[in-house]
Amino acid sequence: MSACETAKGGIAGNGEEVLGLGYQVQRAGAKAVIATLWAVSDEGTSQLMQAFYQHLKQGQTRAAAIQSAQLDLIRSNYQDGNPYFWSPFILIGNGW
Questions:
Q1: Angle at 18 between CA 69 and CA 10, to 5 degrees
Q2: Quick one: which of 69, 88, 90, 92 has the fewest CB in 10 Å?
Q3: Rounded CA gap, 26 and 92, in Å?
C-alpha cells in the first residue's frame, strides 16, 4: 500500500495521532508499515520504494532498507536532495 499521509491522524492527544492509517493497518495484522507524515510526490515515492525493495532483496532488514533507500535518494541528488521527497517516510512496527 502506498498513499499520502498514512501516518497522519487526528488530534487524540495520546500519541496515536501521529500513526494514523499506518497504525490501524498494523493493528489489523501487518508486521510493519511504511507510512508518510505528509503528502508526497508520486515520482519520488516510486524511486524510494523501488530502492527500498531492492535493498530488501539484498538481505537488509526493513529498517536498514528504508534508511538505505532514503540515502540513495539523497545521494542521487533527486530534486536537489530536498527532504520533502525522502524524509516523510517512517517505518512503524517490526524493523526485521
A1: 135
A2: 90
A3: 8
